[in-house]
## 1
Amino acid sequence: MTRRRKHWGWGFEDQQPPPGEVEATATAAREHLGFEPAPVERPVPLDDVTLPAPALDPPASLADICRTDPYERVTHSYGKSYRDVVRAFRGRFDNPPDVVAHPRDEAELERVLAWCEEAGAAAVPFGGGTSVVGGVEPPLGRAAVSIDLKRMDRVLEVDSESRAALIQAGAMGPLLEDQLRGHGLTLRHFPQSFEYSTLGGWIATRAGGHYATLHTHIDDFVESVRALTPRGVWESRRLPGSGAGPSPDRLLIGSEGILGVITQAWMRVQNAPRFRESAGLTFDSFEAGARAVRALSQSGLHPSNCRLLDGAEAALTGAAPDGRALLVLGFESADHALDPWMARALELCADHGGRARGGDDRSTRGEAESSWRDAFLQAPYLRDTLVAAGVFVETFESAVTWDRFDALVASVRERAREALGAGATVTCRLTHVYPDGAAPYFTVLAPARRGDELAQWDEVKAAASEAILGGGGTITHHHAVGRDHRPWYDRQRPDPFADALRAAKAAVDPAGILNPGVLV
Amino acid sequence: MTRRRKHWGWGFEDQQPPPGEVEATATAAREHLGFEPAPVERPVPLDDVTLPAPALDPPASLADICRTDPYERVTHSYGKSYRDVVRAFRGRFDNPPDVVAHPRDEAELERVLAWCEEAGAAAVPFGGGTSVVGGVEPPLGRAAVSIDLKRMDRVLEVDSESRAALIQAGAMGPLLEDQLRGHGLTLRHFPQSFEYSTLGGWIATRAGGHYATLHTHIDDFVESVRALTPRGVWESRRLPGSGAGPSPDRLLIGSEGILGVITQAWMRVQNAPRFRESAGLTFDSFEAGARAVRALSQSGLHPSNCRLLDGAEAALTGAAPDGRALLVLGFESADHALDPWMARALELCADHGGRARGGDDRSTRGEAESSWRDAFLQAPYLRDTLVAAGVFVETFESAVTWDRFDALVASVRERAREALGAGATVTCRLTHVYPDGAAPYFTVLAPARRGDELAQWDEVKAAASEAILGGGGTITHHHAVGRDHRPWYDRQRPDPFADALRAAKAAVDPAGILNPGVLV
């Protein structure tokens, strides 16, 4: 219980490397990226942070689950986007929540919501706080209560016959998997934020997960959801499938806290895989690799992993230093050996010029996958050091149909490079693929304009987002909308749907307390 | 153009067998079912039907697409449920639409909707008119326009790269497939109503289709939808996947005409399958077969066909006369041979006592599948004769998690038999299966209480629906809600969702003209 999360970046306080090590890594990173040397900054300590006084006083009846101390307010001020980390690193917490509530059960949560409605305060649901789109940031100019769900973190029930589990919304990835493991089950939802994000957050934001095909979003694993709205409990029936009107679950999934606070969900879980096949294949170009991926995604083979990295991304993560595009391909099953699946997949790759790394030596096949996965999970930790190093680092992601894929990728690369200027690195990978398209994910790295990073971010974010929208993509495939994507989301969604969503929200949250400013 | 649909039953007028043949089939059917002989009735001819005068007069500007003649009004009065066929057979058309509009494009549809709003008339979208839940029946006590979409029946665009097609809502199954065939593509959505139902109807009702696993509903094939609402065009972006807020498509899918009139959709289509494996397996009991099906559905093998018939159903359809439960299992692929898939599936079946019919002789494997499919498509034609024969015939369907599966099936059987009395036959099959449950589909056959069939229907419908709801199932897996399922649907859905849906409807249809009485 003494272990605390860092107040400004990723992970726990005890995971922050000592200043000397940060300095060395920062210097090496700039050199590796071809940037001029620059001084390495240090984060503003929590003790030096000044916060506005809380505008709200929790009632005595909620005093034991409400906190107003600086650490709590600071760590619930932001998500974990680059903008968030930069602001937190510099000690800028201009608009923290007034109160942080930690309900232990639905009864307490209900009382917190009732108090918010009475006090006219915004209620901002907070899971792991790993939003990268401003989804958990309090609205400006309004008293706000951040409602942290992490005390509701239990797997309440397991139905092994139906392979489903009832899980509380505040359970973070590792804790949730630990509880399922005893039953031989696993949710197998592994977003990059896995260590620190929660089931409720995944559902509220339509998080993308482990499976590159078929079950790409958490949506596909939701059997039923339960949420508290200011006007009662919204709970669907546990059903394997239904055709009874528009799906109630699909309106809650992705609602980003504006319709209700998700408290628990029955999730479809998996038996732990016993059979695995994996391979690393290289291609002359990203475009050639994408054609192989398209063939794979339309083959009905359903690889669990099918992540294509462009040459720069493969080099950057150390997965393939030779500058060729790399496809990390994997199959897994709890039921059957997968040789025929992989054999056919390798044929399809070969048809499109894919060459197996390490030939047919199966023992080396898993290497690309595991080295890429390690880099993937380490990235948010490394980002903290990049901020100290004055390296601007951001990601953009979308999904687009195959007919528009090449053009969209080229356009985002070009517009992002234009916005960031010479010396910027823009890499691309595919995180998830579909028969009708793919989800490209861009990473941009550039020398930061120190002290002016937020303006720099505004510029490149607008440039990339315009390219995405203009190219026929979605403003987000799995990062959610939050506050940051609003301008483009508003243009993307059908107007009558926006009206319908506003009306739906007003029906269940007439006082408009739930996460105001997000989505509508 | 001279070929007309029957005004009271399934198929075309020229498909109605002559009276002597109906008489013979009807007599044989009653005998086969063990019912006492009974006189065979004849349908009331259209000329003998009396209709109330139309309460509405279409404006001159819409005169060329509006019809008020008896044939049009009669054939748009009902769907094709047993209740509908009985009423139509007896010449009872108490509440026909006043006008039937046949818009040829969106501009005409928009004008029809504007006129309905102005005239305060209900606008009832009508695709193929095959609803079995009262989904296309005009509301009582209100002028109504039935809007028939069948003139909008074109495949407008094909994107072979993304394997997607833009299809107008009024395209019926065979016409739609004909148009796709030239591109080597197929939607492969084959509900029992395939010959006469439309894409727009499938989407509006979340129709269940060809695939027994994985892509069970039309929902899974929708890439984007376009609908006209009284407050503008609701059109989503073509996207292979997205995480931008709650899915706009998922609110339209299943909306049964209350939010807008679906005019076209980009659909994910398939390459035509080149490889097929199929097998018929028998089990000692339906419950043993269900355990095999559960293992298959959780295996990740994703059979395209996995239909389990109980002994009575297998005998009734001629698929397996020996009284054992029959599993019709199939795999299909456009990409790869399926021997390893089928081999593993047969192992799983054997683990649960499944015995291959015809041993390992592959040439006979497809027989069960094709004889079952023929019976499946012929059933609605046969039903017309059963009505003439005084045989009560109805189906109930649901979906339920595996932990509650056996109990729900037993309870529906028992309650339906109780309601129908001695001599009733209740059969069950699984139409679609999931890792977490299955969709049981019940057929009931009993001597009809002649002249009192609607009351008989009310009793058995209530009994079966209570058993379904009480057993933890959904009131409909793929027949939609319409008017018939409202009492149970209202209890099934979360109350705040009902409020949200009502508010959403009011936002896009403030005058409440769209399919009033359905869903909300």
Note: The first strand of chain B starts at residue 66 and ends at 67.
## 2
Amino acid sequence: MSTTAPQRSDEDADIERHVADICRRARAAARRLAHASDAQRSGALLRIAARIRQEARAIAQANAVDVEAGRAGGLGAALLDRLTLTPERIEAMAAGVAIVAALPDPLEGIIREWTTERGLEIRQVRIPIGVVGVIYESRPNVTADVAALCLKSGNAALLKGGKEAIRSNAAIADLLAAEITAAGLPPDSVQLLRSTDRRATEAMLRQDATIDVIIPRGGPGLVRAIAEHSRVPVIRHYEGICHTYVDSGADLSMAADIAFNAKVQRPGVCNAMENLLVHADVARPFLEMLAPRLRAAGVELRGCERTRAILPGIATASEADWHTEYLDLILAIKVVDSLDEAIDFINQNGSGHSDTIVTRSRERADRFLREVDSATVYENASTRFTDGFEFGFGAEVGISTNRIHARGPMGLRELTTYKYVVRGQGHVR
Amino acid sequence: MSTTAPQRSDEDADIERHVADICRRARAAARRLAHASDAQRSGALLRIAARIRQEARAIAQANAVDVEAGRAGGLGAALLDRLTLTPERIEAMAAGVAIVAALPDPLEGIIREWTTERGLEIRQVRIPIGVVGVIYESRPNVTADVAALCLKSGNAALLKGGKEAIRSNAAIADLLAAEITAAGLPPDSVQLLRSTDRRATEAMLRQDATIDVIIPRGGPGLVRAIAEHSRVPVIRHYEGICHTYVDSGADLSMAADIAFNAKVQRPGVCNAMENLLVHADVARPFLEMLAPRLRAAGVELRGCERTRAILPGIATASEADWHTEYLDLILAIKVVDSLDEAIDFINQNGSGHSDTIVTRSRERADRFLREVDSATVYENASTRFTDGFEFGFGAEVGISTNRIHARGPMGLRELTTYKYVVRGQGHVR
């Protein structure tokens, strides 16, 4: 399936060896971490939280060098903002780690247990996944965030941050390693890949013998490149093309509140609405009520021909609009003739992330909830609730668009897997 | 990360289009199948079982042509045997489908439900994965087997069998499609990829937008090639390098029975033992008891130096022996000084499949069960029990060596995933 391997330079081989060595150490650490008690894992997190507060100034200084280099290198304002660690952000980072420490142990409890016909006692128990690789972009607080989630769930973490944040990440990683060691856990439990060479990232993606799962956190370009090239299983966090469908007979005032919230409250996130579908029966009164609110909030409207007949002057939604994640104050609107058409449209054009129906009919809601093939489906609520904290998970790894292992909001439990423990009394087949 | 794409011929493009078309139809079928009732899904399976019995002769005739072509083409005796459908094997195929029909609905039941602080009612419900691609080798009964498991769990199946079995597989697939249609389910619920071109398989591996998971069933070479090249998540069924560890103070007669069973009862399967570890305290009496039984069963023994001091004349186990899956009557034996050494050895050399301790100490068993990092860990039982039927799952998709989604024996439930259904009363953030 592949052709001959390209010639590799000595430098390539060095990078490969370096990454392989880090991965081996992560694997060894993972074996020990898996049997650490929750008290030990959470104790390490509390030490880390305290140390982040103590070293806030040193972290800020390292970060200032990154920000200066970024500015000199022509980094845009938005990226510079994401890169910057203010005192408030450093305090939020410490507080986040302490909150994760206080959550219930995700490894506790037996999933199922039963005795087979032949008398074997089988328990399915939760265990950490093992070695979790996280590849992320500019925000340095992700370093502490992800380390906390992985440690709490007993996983060794291998972190690869963006090169623009390397000094900030290194300062945080040094402190993590020191406190992890002081807490009696393996020093290699959290390792930062300090090479900024992209070949180091590529080498990580080939480490399917030592890394168990890779979680990319960043823009769709990053996620797609990783998903395409990784031999290690990837938990993807792709785009959300989320829909609000306003049914015939819906409470239009509720529908307008939900649609407005889903589009406007935070348009740049994956659970914001991109497409609005409206049943023909209620299209005119609903759109005439909603459009002025959206326009007042600065939302640009695009529509199908029937929408444009109701809201003259708005642009025509092109085919591409229906499957674009704007992440911006833009909304595509379509009038549909039936619940079926809405369901089909969402299944065709959506991204399987989050979709909602506003309706007064429980029966029609049930059909929507059953037939829309998305990770999270809503009745009479905004799609913005797709979020680990809103779900009550206490912590969020991200929102998975995978169909297997973890779907939708990922909390600590989604960083675990299981094994079967079988007890016999000399059983043979 | 990749270099320039190679030039593609028109034929390549045709194959790509053909596979893409089949995949699109599978996706559409999956959407409808997901909401079919268990009565419909199981009813289709009962029709299929009856039809296989009716058409046993026609299936045998198609198979005879494959077998003849295989013989003429120089296929080896073992492969010819696996390819051949005897009347008994056809009956077993029908019976297998009927048994799957009678199993409980894997889609039934709510995994968790709770109400959030803000009053959203969240249910985590089981749903089919969607489109399952299965790539397998010579045995044509896999076609009916896998189709039954996928249909029962509400998944559309895309089957790619070996080219040596193409006529047998086509005869079975035709009958499947006819009965699925007659049962009122989408005709594309089970499709056989009839191209025997390997480019068709390669095209399947690129269909990450339409295929949700690929399950390779075949030798380690097949599985590894697929895992390395697939953009679609793969549930691997790799090798099992399984260990029996005989602890100090173990019941040696029980230990001998378990070790003998694990090695000899069916040496060619993944849950058979490959390495035997014996605590130094009991090595001499144990090995002197077990070795004659193993030799009488035709087992070739290889050992470490301390083993060879007890069993003179056996070959030295090389470094490679410790991580070789023999799938044959060969056993590598090592004397260890402690439980820790055994655990470390297994975690280093095993494949994370199935490993057992024979001991009288519950405390030492607990340490082994906790610290050995394998999908199934045993106390006082043969590793041969790692099997969906022995576990009581009623059906077996295979034995996963993945660490996420499904680990160990996979039954119908492991062909499902979940979604979150959220009910609000106008909730906005």
Note: Chain A touches chain B through 77 residues (CB under 8 Å).
